[in-house]
Amino acid sequence: MVSRPTLPPLSLYIHFPWCIRKCPYCDFNSHQAKADLPEQAYINALLTDLQHELELLGGVRPLHSIFMGGGTPSLFSAAALARLLIGVKQLLPFDERCEITLEANPGTFESAKFQEFRALGINRLSIGIQSFNDSHLQQLGRVHSAAEAQRAISIAQTAGFDNINLDLMFGLPGQTATEALMDISTAVSLKPNHISFYQLTLEPNTYFHKFPPRLPDDETIFAIQTACQQVLTENGYQQYEISAYAKHGQQCRHNRNYWQFGDYLGIGAGAHGKISQAIPLNIVRSVKPKNPEQYLQQPTFSERTAIAVAQLPLEFMMNQLRLREGFSLADYPQRTGLQCNSLEPGLSQCLAQNLLLKQQQRIFCSEKGWDFLDAILEKFV
């Protein structure tokens, strides 16, 4: 055991459960908006929820980052988000470099609205493009066209956003390597700071899982991924996480805090949180009710579970090894409260098998290990 380790940075995740239309591949907690959004009631619930969550912190800690995800948070008005951010800041201070991200759907972009979002202090946009191919967008159930996607990026840049992430998917139904390369080349030409590039998977409880489309075979998917990664590398996008690529110095602070086993409060319908109250004996995970109506009625209800000490090595490795840079051995006791010998024998086995590498007290995946991450994690169960 390690006494009095330093608490990790604190982030805040805010979930907005409504969207224009539920996409057939989406397994997030999102619900099609059937009428006017209950903006004021939901903002009230979020702030009540946050005030209740502060008891987990045991004192005031500054916010390292805020991420508004969904669903489609950009459906909400600037006035509603202004009231939310003002309320959050009254409860928790923002650190001087606080990254505030808003997820946005290209089908919700209006010039004046996004200028107002920028004026609120929102300093990062994550835009759900998925593809620049109209046929693939229709198959994915997206509400925007390729032209609208490009227009949305232009609107964001004109509104003053200079920190933009584009979400792109590959391995789409019927997608060829040429089509995927066209998607990634178009994305690169628009000069975002960050690109999230991930494979379409058929998740349980989705329409695509129940009625699976025909996806490219493994060989084609591997060829797509390899060719697109080369384009990203050639254009200065460094892969720093399994599906995240960024220009130098433009990695997502919020998601890095997740992967570095940092702390985060989660508010909103279905939101998850993880807070270190007393390391290692009381690192608590929480989850809120998924149903928006239930959440509006019970915004302070939360299921909370302490992570068992025996599970901490796996929890830590599951997050940290998503990063190309891995982790410093000095970080392990600071985040978990455990000595590094609690990683044995798994760590030594992975080093001997060349699945993990060690350089200057830093542990990270080898190229072989990067392809067999599940096999690595099994050694820490």
**Spatial shape:** globular
CATH class of the largest domain: Alpha Beta
Identify the quaternary structure here.
single chain
User: In total, how many beta strands?
Assistant: 17
> What's the architecture of the largest domain in CATH terms?
Alpha-Beta Barrel
Helix content: 25-40%
Total tally of structural domains: 2
Largest sheet: 9 strands, mixed
Supply Rg: 21 Å
Report how far apart the termini are: 19 Å
Number of helices: 15
Class by alpha and beta content: alpha/beta
CATH fold type of the largest domain: TIM Barrel
Fourth-level CATH superfamily of the largest domain:
Aldolase class I
Biggest sheet, strands in spatial order? Answer: 9-10-8-7-6-5-4-1-11
Strand content: 15-25%
Q: Which parts are unreliable, with pLDDT below 50 for 5 consecutive residues or more?
A: none
Mean pLDDT over all positions: 94
Model description:
- The protein is α/β, with parallel strands linked by helices and 381 residues long.
- The chain is built from 15 helices and 17 strands.
- It has helices spanning 39-57, 78-91, 111-119, 134-139, 146-158, 177-189, 207-210, 218-234, 253-259, 292-297, 312-320, 331-336, 346-352, 367-371, 373-378, and strands at 10-16, 18-19, 31-32, 63-70, 94-104, 124-130, 164-170, 194-199, 238-241, 244-246, 263-267, 272-278, 282-287, 303-306, 327-328, 356-359, 362-365.
- The strands form 4 sheets. A 9-stranded mixed beta sheet has the order 9-10-8-7-6-5-4-1-11, sandwiched between helices. A 3-stranded antiparallel beta sheet has the order 12-13-14, with no helix packed on it. A 3-stranded antiparallel beta sheet has the order 15-17-16.
- It starts with 9 loop residues before the first strand and ends with a helix.
